[in-house]
Amino acid sequence: MSQSLNKVPKNIVSVDAILFDLDGTLVDTAPDFITVLNQQRLDFGLPPLLEHAIRDTVSDGARALTALAFGGKEGEEEFEAKRQDLLTRYKNKVGNDAKLFDGMEKTLRHFENLNIPWGIITNKPRVYTDILLSRLKLDQRSAITLCPDDVKKPKPDPEVMILASRELNIELTNTVYVGDHIRDIQAGKAANMITVAAAYGYISAENKISAWGAKHEIHHPSELISLFIG
């Protein structure tokens, strides 16, 4: 990374890299899930859920979305059948309505223009991640994309962060991790990274971001520019 950093103007406060969580941080994937989950409920004879209820749950994963839509508990046969049905439906629709959060494209371009690499560390399985990034044409821009498939212990364990540092040859103490879930901040802190809580993400009213212990809190992606390269 030293060669890239040498290209950054002297008046710029720089970091080795900026890494993002995916759903609710880098990409607004909630529209995909809103469409899929409510269609699934409709097929089971249930009325649609309010969009904000689904949006607030997306970062908690398919199990939480299944519980929100149908109740039940993980491990129960009916619950697992509905969860698998949700995942199958989502795979067929992933990326159809998803998009970068407002201001994120401009932010990523700033990093790219300064040769500061950005990447993705997500708990979203690779089969869905790869489809999503390909459809959004982000797959060739991300310096690294790591999924739970790549490690034994996903976030909040720091294993995936350590893997990113080896792959990119960066110092984690000078690397930013941005996420919209407490596990993102826990993983980043455990790896001694500079943590940023994305308050614009999929965060329910019950969640208190201030309690996560992130180094910074942002309400719009563009705030990363002034924090780290402005």
Largest sheet: 6 strands, parallel
**Oligomeric state as shown:** single chain
- Total strands: the figure is 8
CATH class placement of the largest domain: Alpha Beta
Helix tally equals 10
Number of structurally distinct domains: 2
Radius of gyration: 18 Å
Q: How do the strands of the widest beta sheet line up side by side?
A: 5-4-1-6-7-8
Order of helices and strands: HEEHHHHEHEHEHEHEEH
Low-confidence stretches: 1-12
What average pLDDT do the residues reach?
92
- For the terminal residues, how far apart are their CA atoms? 19 Å
Derived structural class: alpha/beta
What is the H level of CATH, i.e. the homologous superfamily of the largest domain? Answer: HAD superfamily/HAD-like
Q: In percent, how much strand structure appears in the residues?
A: 5-15%
- Helix amount: 40-55%
Query: Would you tell me which CATH topology of the largest domain applies?
Result: Rossmann fold
Indicate the CATH architecture of the largest domain: 3-Layer(aba) Sandwich
Keywords:
6-stranded parallel β-sheet; two-stranded antiparallel sheet; disordered N terminus; alpha/beta; 2 domains; Rossmann fold; globular; 230 residues
Helices and strands in order:
Elements: H1 2-5, E1 17-20, E2 27-28, H2 30-43, H3 51-55, H4 62-70, H5 77-93, E3 99-100, H6 104-113, E4 118-121, H7 126-135, E5 145-146, H8 159-168, E6 175-179, H9 182-190, E7 194-198, E8 216-218, H10 223-228
Helix pairs in contact: 2-5, 4-5
